[in-house]
Amino acid sequence: MEGLKFLRSTQIIILGVCFVIATIVSTMILSKGLLQIRKFSSEVVTVTGSAEKKIVSDHIVWSAKFTRQEKDLKVGYSKLQDDLKKVKEYLSSKGIKDDEITISSVDTSTLFKKNEKGNDTNEIEAYRLSQGIEVKSYDVKRVEDVSRQSTELIEQDIRLISNAPEYFYTKLAELKIEMLAMATEDAKKRASTMANSTGNRIGAIRSAKMGTFQITPVNSYDVSWYGNNDTSSYEKKVMAVVNASFAIE
């Protein structure tokens, strides 16, 4: 009987020891797992990568307006139509195609005579009529030259007001994808340099956030938090920014 009790006591002690050992091992495994999770979530390097590229505009929009001021509305309208004919003939002679030209409707305003105090009276002094013309083309240089030479129309008694051309790049969507890849690669190189300086190396990318695109004249360094989209220059500079975080191994 005593031998049986001793055997049971020994078994209980052994089971207790096994339980303690199992608890210790489980705790160590769990602690190691938590440590790895903490390391995964906290040991990262965050950098900003950028990419820059020069582009040339492939589309141009140029607009101008011509006016007439006459006492008789019908006379003014007739003369304005003659001006339109001359403008279209001039553009055609410069190689501008009909399908590149958009003609706006005639805008008419009434001018009243002033009294001695400088206020308008009810007496009509004249009518001012104006009409706009817009040229959209992929032949950028040709239209640019025409916009500069258009003052030649003044010699034909046409009161022309020419606006500065606007320059666009039509393949911007494809360019953005290319620029983002370049900016991300730059971010990776920066992160690798920082990690190597401390004897570490970078792992997988944890997060990436695209910044704003800056499209500016070539020699401009202006930036804006909402991005720039310059239309005033033929040659442009595009800059993309990416904020990325990489794991440290």
Characterization of this structure:
This protein is an alpha+beta fold and 249 residues long. It folds into three domains: 1-42; 45-58 and 169-249, Protein of unknown function (DUF541), domain 1 (Translation Initiation Factor IF3, 2-Layer Sandwich); 59-168, Alpha-Beta Plaits, CATH 3.30.70.2970. The protein is built from four helices and eleven strands. It has helices spanning 2-42, 73-93, 140-149, 172-196, and strands at residues 44-56, 59-70, 101-103, 107-114, 120-137, 159-162, 166-168, 202-210, 214-217, 228-229, 235-248. Strands 2, 3, 4, 5, 6 and 7 form a six-stranded antiparallel β-sheet that branches. Strands 1, 8, 9, 10 and 11 form a five-stranded mixed β-sheet that branches. A hairpin with a 5-residue loop joins strand 4 and strand 5 (120-137). The chain is elongated and about 85 Å long. The relative contact order is 0.19. The model is unreliable at 17-41 (pLDDT under 50).
The N- to C-terminal Cα distance equals 62 Å
Overall tally of domains:
3
Number of strands: 11
The CATH architecture term of the largest domain is 2-Layer Sandwich
Instruction: Please describe the biggest sheet, giving its number of strands, its sense, and whether it closes into a barrel.
Output: 6 strands, antiparallel
- What portion of residues is helical? 25-40%
Instruction: List the secondary-structure elements in sequence, H or E.
Output: HEEHEEEHEEHEEEE
What oligomeric arrangement do these chains adopt? single chain
CATH class of the largest domain: Alpha Beta
The shape, in one word, is elongated
Mean pLDDT: 85
CATH superfamily of the largest domain, please? Protein of unknown function (DUF541), domain 2
CATH-assigned fold name of the largest domain? Alpha-Beta Plaits
Number of helices: 4
Structural class: alpha+beta
Low-confidence stretches: 17-41
